[in-house]
Write a structure and sequence with these properties.
35% helix; single chain; 15% strand; 3-stranded parallel β-sheet; 79 residues; 3 strands; alpha/beta; 3 helices
Length: 79
């Protein structure tokens, strides 16, 4: 288990959320252990070696927002 995956696990445990309900966003090899344990793994302009570990890949904050909204993680307010 890498440092980032350990932190994700600790944070999830602290708020009593199973890892299956967590989200990890990364782009490089150092993020792989975290992406592999998260419930939803998102690559943000990921390196080629990281793509296979990602459930979704985004290339902008707008795309990330839409993805998180589609998973009911955030709700955008209409003005």
């Amino acid at each position: 288990m890498g440092r980032l995956s350990a932190v994700l696990g600790s944070m999830a445990a602290a708020v009593q959320v199973p890892l299956s309900r967590t989200i990890a966003i990364g782009d490089g090899a150092n993020d792989l252990p975290m992406l592999e344990v998260a419930g939803l793994s998102v690559g943000y302009l990921p390196k080629d070696a990281v793509r296979p570990a990602c459930d979704a890949v985004v290339a902008s904050m707008s795309e990330l927002g839409a993805l998180l909204e589609s998973h009911n993680v955030i709700r955008r307010h209409e003005t």
